User: Fold this.
Amino acid sequence: MIHLLNEGATLAAGEALASLLRPGSWIALEGPLGAGKTTLARGVARGLGLAEDVPVTSPTFALVQEYDTTPRFVHGDLYRLSHACELEPLGLLERLDEGAIVALEWALPFVAELGRPELVLRLSHDDAGGRGLQVEGAAAERARSKLRAAVAEGEAL
Assistant:
Protein backbone atom coordinates (compact mmCIF):
# COMPACT_ATOMS: atom_id res chain seq x y z
CA MET A 1 0.00 0.00 0.00
CA ILE A 2 1.31 3.42 -0.97
CA HIS A 3 0.10 6.24 1.27
CA LEU A 4 -1.01 9.42 -0.50
CA LEU A 5 -0.97 12.11 2.17
CA ASN A 6 -2.52 14.87 0.09
CA GLU A 7 -3.63 15.99 -3.37
CA GLY A 8 -0.06 16.90 -4.32
CA ALA A 9 1.06 13.34 -3.64
CA THR A 10 -1.83 11.94 -5.71
CA LEU A 11 -0.99 14.24 -8.63
CA ALA A 12 2.69 13.32 -8.37
CA ALA A 13 1.76 9.62 -8.45
CA GLY A 14 -0.24 10.20 -11.63
CA GLU A 15 2.61 12.10 -13.26
CA ALA A 16 5.00 9.27 -12.41
CA LEU A 17 2.57 6.75 -13.89
CA ALA A 18 2.53 8.68 -17.16
CA SER A 19 6.22 7.98 -17.66
CA LEU A 20 5.61 4.22 -17.26
CA LEU A 21 2.72 3.86 -19.68
CA ARG A 22 3.19 2.92 -23.32
CA PRO A 23 0.99 4.12 -26.16
CA GLY A 24 -1.97 1.79 -26.52
CA SER A 25 -2.06 0.75 -22.86
CA TRP A 26 -4.85 1.24 -20.40
CA ILE A 27 -5.08 1.41 -16.64
CA ALA A 28 -8.04 0.60 -14.40
CA LEU A 29 -8.85 3.07 -11.62
CA GLU A 30 -10.86 1.48 -8.84
CA GLY A 31 -12.14 2.79 -5.53
CA PRO A 32 -15.10 4.41 -3.80
CA LEU A 33 -16.46 7.84 -4.64
CA GLY A 34 -14.06 10.59 -3.61
CA ALA A 35 -11.05 8.30 -3.30
CA GLY A 36 -8.96 10.27 -5.79
CA LYS A 37 -9.45 8.47 -9.11
CA THR A 38 -9.93 11.68 -11.09
CA THR A 39 -7.07 13.41 -9.28
CA LEU A 40 -4.79 10.52 -10.20
CA ALA A 41 -6.00 10.74 -13.82
CA ARG A 42 -5.31 14.50 -13.75
CA GLY A 43 -1.74 13.70 -12.72
CA VAL A 44 -1.38 11.27 -15.63
CA ALA A 45 -2.66 13.93 -18.03
CA ARG A 46 -0.18 16.48 -16.63
CA GLY A 47 2.61 13.91 -16.92
CA LEU A 48 1.73 13.46 -20.58
CA GLY A 49 2.08 17.20 -21.16
CA LEU A 50 -1.40 18.61 -20.59
CA ALA A 51 -1.17 22.30 -19.67
CA GLU A 52 -2.03 23.30 -16.11
CA ASP A 53 -4.81 25.61 -17.29
CA VAL A 54 -6.73 22.77 -18.99
CA PRO A 55 -9.21 21.28 -16.52
CA VAL A 56 -9.38 17.51 -16.02
CA THR A 57 -12.73 16.69 -14.50
CA SER A 58 -14.63 13.54 -13.72
CA PRO A 59 -16.11 11.94 -16.84
CA THR A 60 -19.07 10.55 -14.88
CA PHE A 61 -21.70 12.16 -17.10
CA ALA A 62 -19.75 12.53 -20.37
CA LEU A 63 -18.44 8.93 -19.91
CA VAL A 64 -15.25 9.66 -21.92
CA GLN A 65 -13.05 12.73 -22.17
CA GLU A 66 -10.04 13.08 -24.45
CA TYR A 67 -7.05 15.33 -23.91
CA ASP A 68 -4.56 16.64 -26.44
CA THR A 69 -1.35 15.13 -25.06
CA THR A 70 1.44 13.04 -26.53
CA PRO A 71 0.36 10.29 -26.72
CA ARG A 72 -3.32 11.22 -26.55
CA PHE A 73 -4.91 10.68 -23.12
CA VAL A 74 -8.43 9.32 -22.69
CA HIS A 75 -10.16 9.31 -19.29
CA GLY A 76 -13.39 7.37 -18.94
CA ASP A 77 -15.89 6.38 -16.30
CA LEU A 78 -17.82 3.18 -16.97
CA TYR A 79 -19.88 3.23 -13.76
CA ARG A 80 -23.17 3.87 -15.56
CA LEU A 81 -22.67 1.12 -18.16
CA SER A 82 -24.74 -1.97 -17.54
CA HIS A 83 -23.74 -4.11 -20.51
CA ALA A 84 -20.64 -4.64 -22.64
CA CYS A 85 -22.50 -3.63 -25.81
CA GLU A 86 -22.47 -0.06 -24.45
CA LEU A 87 -18.68 0.09 -24.84
CA GLU A 88 -18.60 0.19 -28.64
CA PRO A 89 -20.08 3.69 -29.10
CA LEU A 90 -17.45 5.08 -26.70
CA GLY A 91 -14.64 4.22 -29.13
CA LEU A 92 -12.25 3.02 -26.43
CA LEU A 93 -10.83 0.10 -28.41
CA GLU A 94 -10.23 2.39 -31.39
CA ARG A 95 -8.42 4.89 -29.17
CA LEU A 96 -6.19 2.12 -27.82
CA ASP A 97 -5.47 0.91 -31.37
CA GLU A 98 -4.55 4.50 -32.29
CA GLY A 99 -1.99 4.54 -29.46
CA ALA A 100 -3.83 6.55 -26.83
CA ILE A 101 -3.21 5.96 -23.14
CA VAL A 102 -6.55 5.22 -21.51
CA ALA A 103 -7.46 5.48 -17.82
CA LEU A 104 -10.83 3.97 -16.97
CA GLU A 105 -12.76 4.22 -13.74
CA TRP A 106 -15.04 1.29 -12.87
CA ALA A 107 -13.74 -0.78 -15.82
CA LEU A 108 -12.99 -4.20 -14.36
CA PRO A 109 -16.40 -5.69 -15.30
CA PHE A 110 -15.38 -5.10 -18.95
CA VAL A 111 -11.93 -6.73 -19.01
CA ALA A 112 -13.17 -9.45 -21.36
CA GLU A 113 -13.92 -6.76 -23.96
CA LEU A 114 -11.05 -4.35 -23.24
CA GLY A 115 -8.28 -6.82 -22.51
CA ARG A 116 -6.16 -6.87 -19.38
CA PRO A 117 -5.10 -3.47 -18.07
CA GLU A 118 -1.43 -2.62 -17.73
CA LEU A 119 -2.14 -1.67 -14.13
CA VAL A 120 -5.03 -1.84 -11.70
CA LEU A 121 -4.85 1.09 -9.29
CA ARG A 122 -7.06 0.69 -6.23
CA LEU A 123 -7.56 3.89 -4.27
CA SER A 124 -9.10 4.00 -0.81
CA HIS A 125 -9.74 6.47 1.98
CA ASP A 126 -7.59 6.16 5.08
CA ASP A 127 -8.27 7.17 8.67
CA ALA A 128 -5.79 10.07 8.57
CA GLY A 129 -7.65 11.84 5.75
CA GLY A 130 -5.28 10.75 3.01
CA ARG A 131 -5.59 7.97 0.50
CA GLY A 132 -4.17 4.52 0.04
CA LEU A 133 -3.03 3.25 -3.34
CA GLN A 134 -2.62 -0.43 -4.19
CA VAL A 135 -0.90 -1.25 -7.47
CA GLU A 136 -1.58 -4.54 -9.27
CA GLY A 137 -0.87 -5.87 -12.74
CA ALA A 138 1.92 -6.75 -15.13
CA ALA A 139 3.91 -3.58 -14.48
CA ALA A 140 3.17 -3.38 -10.74
CA GLU A 141 6.69 -3.96 -9.39
CA ARG A 142 8.24 -1.36 -11.68
CA ALA A 143 5.41 1.08 -10.91
CA ARG A 144 5.57 0.75 -7.11
CA SER A 145 9.16 1.92 -6.75
CA LYS A 146 8.65 4.86 -9.12
CA LEU A 147 5.41 5.81 -7.37
CA ARG A 148 6.92 5.73 -3.88
CA ALA A 149 9.68 8.14 -4.96
CA ALA A 150 7.22 10.49 -6.71
CA VAL A 151 4.79 10.46 -3.79
CA ALA A 152 7.52 11.47 -1.35
CA GLU A 153 8.23 14.51 -3.54
CA GLY A 154 4.53 15.26 -4.07
CA GLU A 155 3.73 15.34 -0.37
CA ALA A 156 5.93 18.40 -0.08
CA LEU A 157 3.69 20.34 -2.51
